[in-house]
Amino acid sequence: MNKHLLSRKLSLLMLALGLTLGTLPSIASASNSTYLQLPQDARSLADPSDETIISPQINTTSSNKVRVIVQLTGQPAAVGKYAAKQGIRSLAATATEPAVNAEQSSFLRKVTNQHIDLQVNYQYNTVLNGFEVTIPANEIPELAQIEGVKSIQENHIWYPIPIESSESEETGNYESSPLKQIGAIDAWKNGYTGAGLKVGVIDTGVDYTHPDIAPAYKGGYDSFYRDSDPYEEVPLTPEEDVEYGTGYEGTYHGTHVAGTIIGRFANKTSDIVQKGVAYGADLYAYKVLGRDIDRPDKSSGTSAQVIDGIERAVKDGMDVINLSLGSDSEKDVNSPDAVAINNAVLSGVVAVIANGNAGPGSSSMGSPATSQLAIAVGAVTSETKYFTGHLTPELVHNDGSVTSATYATYGNFNVMAWETAQEDFHSILGDDPHEVVYVGLGGDSDYIGKNAEGKIVLASRGSYAFIDKIAAAKAHGAKAIVIFNGNADPSNPTQADLSEYVNGRDGLYGGNLGDSFDFIPTVDLAGKEGRALARALIQNPETRLQFTFPSSYPDHLIPGDKLADFSSWGPNADANLSIKPDIAAPGVNILSTWPAYGKGKPETSYDKAYNRISGTSMATPHVAGLALLLKQAHPNWSPFDIRAALANTADGIVDDDGDRYDVYQQGAGRANVASALKTPALLQALEPITILDKNFNPQSVMNYNSSTSFGVVAPGTPQQIKNLQLKNTGNNDVTYTTRVDWYSKHDGIEAALDHETLTANAGRTSTLQLKLNVGTAAEEAFYEGQITLESSGLPTLHLPFVVYVGQEQPANGFGIQELYVTNSVVYPNRTTQSSTDLSFKLTADDTNLLEIDVVDLNDATIGYFTSQTTKDLTNERFEPGKYVVQNLNNKYYPYDEEGNPILNEKGEPTSAYLKDGIYKILVYAAQLNSKGQIVKDKNGQKIEYSGVISYRVDNSSSNTGGTGGPSGGGSSVIIPPTNPSTPAVTDAAKAVIEQGLKQIVVASKSTGTNAALTATIADNDLKTAIASASTSPAAIVVPVTSNKDANVTITFTADQIKQFTSLPSQSSLVIQVGGSAISIPASLLAKAPANNDIELAIHPAANQAAAFLSKVAGSTVIGTPVSFEANWVKDTIRTAVPVPSDTFIKRAFTLPGSIEANSAGVLFEENGIITPVASIFQKQKDNTTIVTVSRPGFSVYAAVNRAVKFDDIEASWAASHITALANKLIINGTNETTFSPKTHLTRAAFTSLLVRSLGLRSSKTTTSFTDVKSSDWYANDVAAAFASGLIQGKDSQTFAPNDNVTRQELTVILDRALQLTGVKLKPSTPSLHAYADNDKIAAYAKDSVSALSAAGIIRGDTSDDGSLFHPQAATTRETAAAALHQLLKKANLTD
């Protein structure tokens, strides 16, 4: 949802306040007896303010101390360093390390002067300009007022846990604490390892060359880049990041997740290994998250990519899928992702999903954990330990005497960090004295002139992060580092404060960083003691300090099973306030595999390819592994059975005070598979629910739930009943005693079971009823408990329940809730169910803006349905209550690339129409000031709220298929009935219809035989269609019914052409014939010669297959070539329709089989010449593939594939681009197996490459260039490029075909090509608009270099002294391939 309200311009606010949007659906309050219309003339567009952002997750009314990240406005030094190389204006001079340090020092002085109780824990100046600090939450608004503060965000603290030493030979050198905690080791003893089962990890991909993963990895798919290699993305420094220049941390998440599930403990060169919960299972990886093109320093994924990953995993036969991903802000139980997961579960796949990291707080969970049929997982801590000891400090004088008595009481310490698997500190530090080097604050610059090699470093806390201090000490060869509690000197931030007393810093720090391969032994020393030792050294320069370490380091245990502070809470966003998460598992400081990115690099070391991270993402794979163990033990168990077994036998967890965490925090408890494997019976709630199938049609299913919720029950309501079942999956009868256990007081509320004992025969089920009575005096609140079943010798079973006593759902704190659509599918071209009503509950009482947006599955906000404000922005607010938006269908008001409404010549929003598909409806509310800026509350939080629900648009006109409930009432948008016999718009036709065009079907009439048909349309039908289009751009779709081998010709008269030209210029005429279709722009029809008809022909061209095969060695033609022809006709004279080079005609044809994107290409023949052209391949659900080609012309087209394997591109940064273009037939190697990525490209070669990619042709074969002969192999391409305005030559007579194309020449030509396609560039890195050698770029190229650099199509070269563009440098083949591929993608011409 990236083009949101906040990006729009203030000027449009003033425009909108004067608009009357009379055709927009109305928003009405349902709290009144009649629909009260809100003002329609209040299109308010919020303008982003430049005020400090405070995370809404921070409770700034609390006096409790919290840890937050403070970001200052200046750019960090890494940006400045790269900016200096790139020549980026305003950044190179301001984002230097001295500038960042000066800004930070100024900030700290202001904090001190304002007496804000702030403690700096980490200080960042390289990749972030800011600090991690501890501060009372209620002082954060004051902190935000300090000039230069950009944002204040919450920080989740991760506490690394050590690797436990082996207790037996069986456990090995892997971390066993979480595995013991969930009972996995007991399961292994019984022979359950997940062997024979398949798990799909839907994530960022996986480093399948990791020794602990490689034996388990069997395959998968990359839904992000749409290829068959789901490998993690490699980190890039800004200098290495040729394509974007921002640097990239790479991806790693999926590798960590996968190791937790299937780690095979096979790494022979590491001191530790990773043993997964289900280490015998096979791994399949589905990459759905990757580098964000619009924010190239980030990783992300869309709903469409996630859904594709789920679909592929199901088709590949996964037993379990793991989704450690989600959106905390999207809470729809029927989100497209949740729908896909529900359907995966119904197909028999166990789906395990992270509940989210937005805790603490009620309703903080999000989609797709909202899936009602999946297993949502929260996170708990695991048992860990820390070490203590006592060191002896001594001052040694020049005469050899030693001062130690003064420091006799000094030296008690904690070990706060150490290297992974190196816990024998005595073997490292020994008993002998070690010389100590004092390094102030411990930054890299503090080591200048000092030798720390083999010595102990003494440093003060402050200014730099602990991990940075450790890294600096390690880099300078220190054996260990001792960090005493302290601060930077406020009067001189580059020095440590060595005062005798420092408020809050005299004792030990008390923190525990745990272990990492990047650490050396790190000691936490009391601040008062460390400062005294440092002062003594400074005051007595003739002395030296030495430390003697102890012979033992006692360890101390910290118990686990505490709820992680970041773990998201329920309830789910359904009508029953259902319990989520379902279960909890270890998720804090989990050690697992980490990518070393060794694919293609056998020398890569995986010795230290392990890391600790935290999140419900880490808890989820533990449960996925347990599901595999249970599936192995019980192959016939359904996903519901596995969920019930884990939940029924889970261990309830309590907080530090012994109070049980509530059901919306822990679900049924922390999983324990040892008990789950022993239970023969399962306790399940029988809950009939309505979910949406893959077509978004409502379906009633039975949810065999592991918990139950009564939802909202008013005091005095008649008895409520929940049905449950005891399912015996064993071979013997079982009998349990039953009871109800309440978790808290429940005055006025009683619950009882209808059986005191319950027997279930072998292989059968027995039913049980939970009866709830809520008295009239019951207080409004949540009440929770559990049904408990006990049987001697068997695990105790429990099923949690909850009820909310009240009149309506409580406010969830998000301002908008209870979203509902009357129809989950709308059919705008039918007489029934043509629209839906949207209702939502506004609980916020401080908003004056309501907006309803439409979002596609790529999570792009493409437009809005309606937007309204109160009449008086200053004094009037929308009343809380239920609101209704009537008659939503496929009509919307689109946004441009900047997120602004597209206006017509009258300054009014233009309308458009949604194509078939699934869309999200985003409800947004905010409070604006008179300037259109979002107002902040007293705590500095922006007053804005949002909610999301989804629906599907089906533009078919047939009344068969699809139901979605009753049609919406109230005033409706009237759409003229369409002839029910008119064929539906085919997928091929949909592929050529541009988004936003209103689809109007006009029936055709055919004459002829099955082999040859001639079609026409009636004048009146066309007039009716054009009248229904009104002033909206439309696609007039004319289907012609024929068999697949027919030659079809359709003719439109001169009068009909005139009617077409009355439509808006963006309109098109779409002809669909079988599996083929073509879209003719209205602008081309407007060029018709006077009194000429147009004749369009589509037919198979099987006889030309051999010609296409002969063009590309080793190729195969897929399916049958298809011919698209167009002629002007007058009397009996036919003239081929000429197409200007800037008019791209889109056509599509259908191939048999499912063909992956970027695995095949298209050739076309025109005037006897065959060349490749860019293309898009889209797989269909019926095992076919639609190919779309857009180029200026008609001709014959064939899909062709060939085997391409270049041996020299694996190390190239452009390898993926090269491979894609080679598979598309667009680019060739210098020979069959060699691409030569570093060699240069001539002007002739690049011109030919670009012309053929765009499918350009010219009627002329000669130019004015005297150095281009008509016999030259590139002559036709140069002629086409010249005629299209892509090239101009060195002068009017010289093209210099054999000269290398320079970087600035290439950029200018690409820019002209983009202009030719009509694509408007959207900057992905808008700040990258200049280079240090900008003055060397020719004047004619400056604008092109700036525009294409900002769009991410071209980047500067890097060198030792900075990043430059090198405009005169020759372009390498890899650079040209990458730039061309990016251009074709930006122009929507290729995958």
Structure description:
The chain is of the alpha+beta class and 1391 residues long. The protein folds into seven domains: 183 residues, no CATH class; 92 residues, no CATH class; 321 residues, Rossmann fold (3-Layer(aba) Sandwich); 174 residues, Glucose Oxidase, domain 1 (3-Layer(bba) Sandwich), CATH 3.50.30; 125 residues, Immunoglobulin-like (Sandwich); 217 residues, Chondroitinase Ac, Chain A, domain 3 (Sandwich), CATH 2.60.220; 144 residues, no CATH class. Helix content is 18%, strand content 29%. β23 and β24 form a beta hairpin. α8 runs parallel beside α9, α22 crosses α27 and α25 runs parallel beside α27. The longest helix is centred in the middle third of the chain and has 18 residues. The two termini are 22 Å apart.
Layout of SSEs?
Layout: H1 10-17, E1 27-29, E2 36-37, E3 53-54, E4 65-72, H2 77-86, H3 97-113, E5 119-124, E6 130-136, H4 140-144, E7 149-154, H5 177-181, H6 184-189, E8 198-203, E9 217-222, H7 253-262, E10 282-287, E11 290-291, E12 299-300, H8 303-315, E13 320-323, H9 336-346, E14 350-354, E15 375-380, E16 384-390, E17 392-396, E18 402-403, E19 412-419, H10 425-429, E20 434-438, E21 456-460, H11 466-475, E22 480-484, E23 488-489, E24 492-496, E25 514-516, E26 522-525, H12 527-539, E27 544-548, E28 555-558, E29 583-586, E30 590-593, E31 610-613, H13 616-633, H14 639-648, H15 663-666, H16 673-676, E32 681-692, E33 698-705, E34 708-713, E35 720-728, E36 734-742, E37 749-753, E38 757-760, E39 765-774, E40 781-790, E41 797-805, E42 816-821, E43 825-826, E44 836-842, E45 849-855, E46 861-869, E47 881-888, E48 891-894, E49 912-913, E50 917-926, E51 944-953, H17 987-992, E52 998-1001, E53 1005-1008, E54 1012-1016, H18 1019-1029, E55 1034-1040, E56 1047-1052, H19 1054-1060, E57 1068-1073, E58 1076-1081, H20 1082-1085, E59 1093-1100, H21 1105-1111, ...
Parallel strand pairs: 3-7, 8-10, 8-13, 9-10, 13-14, 14-15, 15-29, 19-25, 20-21, 21-22, 22-26, 34-41, 43-51, 52-55, 54-56, 55-57
Antiparallel strand pairs: 1-2, 1-47, 4-6, 4-7, 5-6, 11-12, 16-19, 16-28, 17-18, 17-27, 19-26, 20-27, 23-24, 30-31, 32-33, 32-35, 35-39, 36-38, 36-40, 37-39, 40-41, 42-44, 44-47, 45-46, 45-50, 46-48, 48-49, 50-51, 53-54, 56-59, 57-58, 58-62, 59-60, 60-61, 60-67, 62-66, 63-64, 63-67, 65-66, 68-69
Helix pairs in contact: 7-13, 8-9, 22-27, 23-24, 25-26, 25-27
GO molecular function: serine-type endopeptidase activity
Region (Disordered): 954-982
Signal peptide: 1-30
